């Protein structure tokens, strides 16, 4: 995927001072938006600090980007996430040191950074600066705000209606410079030619709706798009500063065709209740494997290594040369291997060229450690599945016992 064009701009909105900042490093590539806080002489300094750190660490980011381009393993992709995490925490410590030096408590900044690797975007963020994907006239939010209201909504403590009215929508539970270790979220987004990637500070979505943001976008007029977006926000009152970075992407020879990967994953019971940003956060933990026609994926009697999800193609499950079932995209097997390592009861072969995602036990445990809230939800769904299996087994045993007693009576 090639970046056809990129533009960036900031505006003070209806405030007297601009604490937002933007950054474009096309050669890395890296693009960022930072929203400083703490008032004049603090927020603008904080935003500048974090973007300076992005520049200083751009070579590390470029190396990690190149590695993922050559190696689609979870090790390389999560390694890119660790580079982002180190960057965010170094930025947070630097903002904290400057806050102490200037005696400006409350000084801090959000940060949203994106890099493009072949036909994927990787977006890391802390705070409530956002990333959006615009595709064929539809705008999709790729990140979830690190606010108290958003956290309560995810945990089911408030309804969507209560969230819309909550004063906690602007209260951040993590921000760079707060004096504690931050945990950035990394989203892995599969791209298609014609896509636009938008990074914004919270000033724009606070002022105008996602629908209005979407209608402002003209893919062949990026500068005009930002101007229209800012004008709409200003007309709506723009209670905060405005900042945005917009990227236009186009396909290159050799790019893989876009597939509805998230739709496939969403149908798997372990992930069915997750939001799109949550699915994007889980994606780097999934190993991508392609099998040729007739290739054996697992063999009966082997120790199970994890969950397999069929993304494209088809597989056949058989036992002792007897076909048990065929699985098409959205089908999955091996989920119990996440909880324990049982011997496989069937052999699985690719019926055609087949692409699968695999969540290994190792990555599942890493998800539990690194993203405990998401990991716990997967674990609960897994426990429910095991419970269903046990109930089914108990019912079958009971049926056999009843049949046996009936034979004895006869």
Compact description:
The protein is an alpha+beta fold.
Total helical segments: 12
The CATH C-level name of the largest domain is: Alpha Beta
Q: In percent terms, what proportion of residues is strand?
A: 25-35%
**Average pLDDT:** 90
Q: Kindly report the CATH topology of the largest domain.
A: Phosphatase 2c, domain 1
Distance from N terminus to C terminus (CA atoms, Å) equals 72 Å
Strand elements, count:
19
Largest sheet: 6 strands, antiparallel
Q: What structural class do the secondary elements suggest?
A: alpha+beta
Describe this structure as you would to a colleague.
The structure is a single chain. The chain is an alpha+beta fold. It has 2 domains: 2-250, 4-Layer Sandwich (Phosphatase 2c, domain 1); 261-384, Jelly Rolls (Sandwich). 38% of the residues lie in helices and 27% in strands. It is built from 12 helices and 19 strands. The protein has helices spanning 43-56, 58-70, 74-102, 148-154, 160-165, 203-207, 210-216, 222-235, 261-266, 276-282, 361-370, 372-409, and strands spanning 2-11, 20-25, 30-37, 108-109, 111-117, 120-126, 130-135, 138-141, 185-190, 196-200, 242-250, 287-291, 296-298, 306-312, 315-319, 322-327, 332-333, 347-350, 354-360. Strands 2, 3, 4, 5, 6 and 9 form a 6-stranded antiparallel beta sheet that branches. β15 and β16 form a beta hairpin. The longest helix is centred in the C-terminal third of the chain and has 38 residues, at 372-409. It starts with a strand and ends with a helix. 40% of the residues are buried.
